[in-house]
Structure formats: structure tokens, C-alpha cells
Amino acid sequence: MMNPARALFVIAFICSLMLPARVSALAPLDSLGVWVRLVAARNTTAHDVAAYKFVAGRPIEDPQREAAVLAEKRDRAVQRGLDPDAVVHTYRQLIEANKLLQHADFQRFLLGRTPSPPPSLDAIRERIDTLDAHLLSRWAQLDDVRAAPDCPRQLARAIALQGTQTSPLDEAARIALVRATLGFCPHDGVPTAGAPGAAQNDAAGH
After folding, report:
1. Phi first, then psi: what are they for 87, rounded to 5°?
2. pTM of the predicted structure, to 2 decimals
3. How far apart are CA 12 and CA 48, in angstroms?
4. Which residues, other chains included, contact 172 with Cβ-Cβ below 8 Å and sequence gap of 6+?
5. pLDDT at residue 23 greater than cutoff 50
6. How far apart are CA 180 and CA 97, in angstroms?
7. Phi, psi at residue 177, to the nearest 5°?
8. Is 159 exposed, middle or buried (0-12, 13-18, 19+ CB in 10 A)?
């Protein structure tokens, strides 16, 4: 009989072989995967923003700054011939996701964790602006994805593929990524045909 330690090793090894095959089977469109990766990168800036604000004694909420950012995104969308309302809606979600992570970090700081020395505010904003420019430059490439009936499923798969086997997204980062992409698909929150549970919900009248 195989000893328990060896059995656990064998099971872990088999699972490690199965995971890449599953990830490959669920691979989303390249354009969507790249875009979601950029969103995830933008979310990570929240930690530097939180550290800067906490050390400087500044509040997380900054309505004037948010309004200026959204107005600038609207102007850029118009210049590129994109739907300004859709672009502004997306950036509003990105801002809210960023603040969600900032609030989580503030909780940790209040409980005694020392913030890491943050970069300068200009450096943080420069990084965010660079990521925003990349996100907006890829917006038009995603029109077909957003128009597809299975857009929510493609987006869910793209989110599931973020991170790596050795450095997976933690739960807070995953939730923030879901928060950041709310409204990306026209049918957010609506199971697509063939999705697990969709038939049961239809039969139940939900």
C-alpha cells in the first residue's frame, strides 16, 4: 500500500499536469486576454496609491480628481471615434476597483501593518496614465468580443487565466478584477445559453 505522503505527492503531481491543459482549453481571445491583463496591472497600482495616501494623511475618495480623469477619458474617446459613454463607464469601474483595493490596504494599515515606502505621486500617476493609454488603444479591437452573446463567459475565462501557477491572483485581486470589468459586456450577470445553471434558472423562472 502506498504511504499517505507519497499518495499526496502523486495526486499533487497529477493535478499539476492537468491544470495547464484546462487553462489551455479555456484560453480566451488574445485581444481580450491582453486587455484583462492590463486591467489587472492597473489594479495593482492601488497598493502604491493606498500607501501614498495613508502616509500623507489623504482620503481615498477624491471626487474632483475622478471627475477630471473621466472627463479626459471622454475627450480621448471622442478623438478616437469610440463610444464615449461606454469608455467613461469602463473607467468609472476601473476607478471603483482601485478604490476597493485601497480600502482593503487601509484596513491592514489601521491594524498595524506598515505601508511600504510609496513612489512619488507623479510616478504613480504616470504609470496609471501609461496603462490607461494601452487600455484605450485596444478598445476598438474588442468590439466583436463585447457584441458576442457569450461575452460574459469569455470575460470570466480571461479573468480566470490571470496570474500564473507560481503566482496566482489572491482573492482580493480576483474580486477587484471582476469589479473593474463590470459592464464590459452588455449582458453582465446574465447566464448565456449552455452555461452551467442557465437551464435550471430558466426552468425555475428566475
Report:
1. -65, -45
2. 0.77
3. 36
4. 101, 104
5. no
6. 5
7. -70, -40
8. buried
